[in-house]
Write a structure and sequence with these properties.
Elements: H1 12-23, E1 29-30, H2 31-37, H3 49-63, E2 70-73, E3 77-80
Antiparallel strand pairs: 1-3, 2-3
Length: 88
């Protein structure tokens, strides 16, 4: 569910991306961790596969008028920049 409370249909990779960031609990998840979590077999530091997955995820969030609270941490990876809440 988006920060605005709107549901967003995610692909398996997009759901894995969000799940891995949630597991990091606000800390930075490395590109390597995300690459493995997304099911890519080879870890290639130069690859932009993770960036492409994040770009598609951001596009889906923008389509429902929200910004995804994910920020790149230079040379490290990505992290959520907002507090997470659980759905009850």
């Amino acid at each position: 569910m988006a920060p605005t409370g709107v549901s967003i249909k995610l692909s398996g990779r997009e759901a894995a991306f969000v799940d891995r960031l949630a597991q990091a609990g606000g800390e930075t998840a490395s590109r390597e961790e995300l690459t493995l979590a997304l099911g890519y077999r080879e870890i290639d530091i130069e690859s932009r596969r993770v960036d492409a997955d994040l770009r598609r995820l951001r596009q889906k969030a923008r389509a429902v008028d929200t910004e995804l609270p994910v920020h790149a941490v230079h040379a490290l990876g990505f992290r959520f920049s907002a507090k997470l809440s659980t759905i009850k």
